Amino acid sequence: MPQGDKRHYTDKQKRQAEHIEEGYEERGLSQDEAERRAWATVNKVHHGGEKPGGGGYGKPENHEPMRKGGRKGGKKR
Fold first, then answer.
1. CB 24 within 8 A of CB 33
2. Does the predicted TM-score (pTM) go above 0.85?
3. How many other CB atoms are found less than 10 A from the CB of residue 61?
4. Rounded CA gap, 46 and 6, in Å?
5. From CA 76, how far away is CA 74, in angstroms rounded?
């Protein structure tokens, strides 16, 4: 699979990346940087694209990277 090829991602992963990208663009990031960060987040959550095999294959999703943005600045005392 060539670099940047998104064929092995599920429709859900593509929708998530698009939604995350929109959020980054609203914060003022460029289109390219927002897209790069969105796919990095999806990869971190789902461990890359769709894998071969049936149910139970691989690791469970880790949604922590999606929640991380709200705490970016650290907590106030």
1. yes
2. no
3. 11
4. 14
5. 7
